[in-house]
TrEMBL record:
SUPFAM superfamilies: Flavoproteins. It comes from the Eukaryota. The lineage of its organism: Eukaryota, Fungi, Dikarya, Basidiomycota, Ustilaginomycotina. InterPro entries: Flavodoxin/NO_synth, Flavoprotein-like_sf, Flavoprotein_WrbA-like, FMN_Rdtase-like_dom. Belongs to the WrbA family. One of its GO terms (molecular function) is NAD(P)H dehydrogenase (quinone) activity. Gene3D superfamilies: 3.40.50.360. GO terms for cellular component: membrane. Residues 37-225 form the Flavodoxin-like domain. This is Putative 1,4-benzoquinone reductase. It comes from Tilletiopsis washingtonensis.
């Protein structure tokens, strides 16, 4: 009886070994795609250049890939001269083509407000995305806004609100800042940010630069936006 049990045990081990050796190896996990975020900067006096750099630092902390572009200006040199614009501040940035948006998982627009809405150059850029709309190329991308105004209550919130319809028509997901930072509720100084996004107040003559709090909020927005986009991309890859 003991010899029979030994033979059965050996047979079982051989069968188990055979099944293990012939089982197909598990396919290696596909590498997770790194999220990519574009920064679209339109700045005449440098405020949004500074804000975009803070956003970029936050995106870097979130571990996402980012690239900064300038939006092509449609204003004439004569008009820009009368506005005392300093376009040299963005001269080294590549001009973004509308089709380039499709290469990114999300984008943040950094532009000063004009009468409670986006500047004409930014609106003109959006108007050139018809081909992307026809292909659904921007569906499920993510977007956020950073802006600046000349005065307190100068239109930062309405700039976001009047741009959301563009996002809706493309199926782009708006990622607001929310009241995530105590700086948004401070009473010891004027802060431009709102739940819709980071902002700074420049003063009527543009002499007021982004404050430490403005830049901190912009960095936090970049970090949280990057984390949100990255989480979405990981979910799609799972």
């Amino acid at each position: 009886m003991s010899k029979l049990l030994q033979r059965l045990s050996l047979s079982s081990k051989k069968s188990s070994s055979s099944s293990i050796s012939t089982a197909p190896a598990a396919a290696p996990a596909a590498p997770v795609k790194m999220a990519k975020v574009a920064l679209l900067v339109y700045s005449l006096y440098g405020h949004q250049v500074a804000m975009s750099k803070a956003v970029e630092a936050g995106l870097k902390e979130a571990g996402v890939e980012s690239k900064t572009f300038q939006v092509r200006d449609i204003l004439s040199e004569e008009v820009l001269g009368k506005m005392h614009a300093n376009k040299s501040l963005t001269a080294d940035l590549p001009v973004i083509d509308p089709d380039t948006l499709a290469e990114f998982d999300g984008f943040i627009v950094c532009a000063g407000t004009r009468y409670g809405r986006q500047p004409a150059s930014v609106s003109a850029f959006f108007d050139q995305t018809g081909g992307l709309w026809a292909r659904g190329a921007l569906k499920n991308k993510m977007a956020g806004f950073v802006t600046s105004t000349g005065s307190q209550h100068g239109g930062a919130e309405t700039t976001a609100l009047t741009t959301i319809p563009f996002l809706a028509h493309h199926g782009i997901i708006f990622v607001p800042l929310g009241f995530t930072q105590p700086e948004l509720s401070t009473l010891d100084e004027i802060v431009g940010a709102s739940a819709y996004g980071a902002a700074t107040i420049t003063g009527g003559d543009g002499s007021r630069q982004p404050t430490e709090k403005d830049l901190k909020v912009a960095k936090v927005q970049g970090k949280e936006f990057g984390e949100t986009v990255a989480q979405f991309i990981r979910g799609k890859s799972a």
